[in-house]
Amino acid sequence: MMRAWTLPMLLVSCGSVVATGLVSRGSSGAAAALLLVFVLLAGVNSPLVFPRPISAPEARRRSAVDGRPVVFWRPGCTYCLRLRIRLGRSARRLHWVDIWRDPAGAVAVRAANDGNETVPTVVVAGRPHVNPDPVWVREQLSSSE
Asked: What are the alphabetically sorted keywords of the record (predicted)?
């Protein structure tokens, strides 16, 4: 769990140090703007941007019931962030598994990717798809309804 917050905490810490240096030089406006940029970057790279993750077994169970895809992801992954942003509000209808929080999810991703933890890995009808096009994922979601 702590590993998911390492990058956001590092970004906020670095931003604070740089902003403190700017304030000591008398540039409080620039310090506030720079700190805001670092906080926004930390927010985008945090787990808060993604829907609440569930465990891999629970995601499989829910997917079997409703037919919706399962997305295996991890915080700090730019491709996962791209998928999340491009899906928009429909992303909340998918089942999201954070492989850093769920060891079973990490095992499932490694099994699908020749031992690598390549994310996002989207499982549709039991078949894994690595870093799929967000438009394709949206189509799979609408066809599952």
From this structure: Membrane, Transmembrane, Transmembrane helix
Contact 35, 19 (CB under 8 A): yes
H helices of the chain, in order, are 6-24, 28-44, 56-66, 78-87, 103-112, 134-143
Q: Is the pTM of this model over 0.85?
A: no
Contacts of 112 (CB under 8 A, 6+ apart): 121, 123, 128, 130
Q: How far apart are CA 106 and CA 119, in angstroms?
A: 10
Distance in angstroms (rounded) separating the CA atoms of residues 70 and 39 = 30
- Would you say 95 and 59 are in contact if contact means Cβ atoms under 8 Å apart? yes
Dihedral of CA atoms 52, 53, 59, 65 in degrees, nearest 10, equals 0
Torsion region of 52: left, alpha or beta (phi above 0 gives left; psi -120 to 50 gives alpha): beta
Q: What is the pLDDT of residues 66-121, one digit of tens each?
A: 999 999 999 889 999 899 989 988 898 999 999 999 999 999 999 999 999 999 99
